[in-house]
Amino acid sequence: MKRTHRHLSPVKATRLSFVLAALCAALLGGSSFAAQTSQTSFVPFQQFLNGIKTANAATFVAQKSSVVKDSASFVEMQQYILNLYKDAHVSQSFLLGNDNFDCIPMQEQPSVRRQGLAHIATPPPVSASLPQAFSSGGAHNQATQISSQLAENDRVDALGHSRVCADGTIPMRRVTLEELSRFPNLQAYFQKTPDSAEHLPNNKIIPPQVYSHKYSYTLQSVTNIGQTDTINLWSPYVNTAAGQIFSLAQSWTVGTNGTTQTAEVGWQNYPGKYGDERSRLFIYWTADGYQNTGCYNLDCSAFVQTNGNWYFGGPFSNYSVVGGAQYEFLAQYYLYQGNWWLGLGSPGNVTWVGYYPASLYGSGPMSTSAQLLEFGSESVGSTSWPPEGSGYFASAGWSYAAYQRELWYWAPGGAAYWLSLTAEEPSPSCYTIAGPYWGGYTPPSNYWGVYFYFGGPGGTTC
């Protein structure tokens, strides 16, 4: 790994698509949550359930917005939602972005009920190990570190409903028939992309598919029990009319011994799933190489949420602005006492939000450790691909290109080490990597450590 530190100066774009991508990022990225929120109807929880029970398959299948394969597929979706919320008691609901959220008692969330968990696991200690290879390093550019998705003035919706769930409950983004009917069947809804042909960035064997994945990323093969990543937050425009599907930035914690298994976290702009053009906080997992297991957020009975201050599938109050204010959040997975715990927040202020039980991975590699770590961006399209990161190439540097920083991992036994990453640019005409670099690590003022810039404008020649 190249351990030099330098500030990268912005470069002028010469491609029209580059300029348009940057303009979209500037327009979308800097808007407040309140300014971006579209009009959504508030539906009380019981009214929502009654609507699911009485929904008519023929009506939904015939809708222009629906791509449900047939009535049988619709009925399967309908029954899935009813089972998902079976025995759940909701006393508080609210609007957030395009969605209704419900405050679900922690013990009644789908993962606890359907996995038959007798109790909620104990989280790791508040203080986490720090990497062993420290360096003095100079002062570095600073972003606003997000300790919650919502700013203080966004904690009540437009109708006066509190968006803060009571102690002992967690916010669950409502799974609706309107959302499910944007997919042909239930299996397609659970997949990471619509055509169920996902693959990891370093997987060179791409199955036949309608859509193609494009990446800019870094990686290291190392046996580990988790990693830390601070992700620069953007909301790049996804042109669905041009066949673009989504754009995201994330970390992949991966088991590779035998079948591919993952625990993933980051932000994602996916209009086909979420119904708008705002990046959302997301998690994803698979235990069998994206074949028959996996889902986003709390959409299936996998992730156990234990803290109500983060909203999976929900938008953020603020996004980074090209040449202006920068926002970021820390995300880490850590295998602790048989569970892959997810921590979110900022350096020195991390909250353990919940976990994937390692039992989800059966006897696979992630039942005991992971063997590969990847960090970067991913986009999906058919003949056109959306911007990744900010929409600027990585060489544009601070406040123009997106970045990920403070990248380190836990080895089995708990010691923490800086990552030694290799950069990959599979589609350099559309997306690039600058770095990885060493930015120093002198808390509390400098948490950059190992970092890199990533992204680009996308286009039709990726």
TrEMBL record:
Transmembrane segments: none annotated. Pfam families: Neprosin (PF03080). Residues 1-34 form the signal peptide. Residues 205-462 form the Neprosin PEP catalytic domain. It comes from the Bacteria. Keywords: Signal. This is Neprosin PEP catalytic domain-containing protein. It comes from Dyella acidisoli.
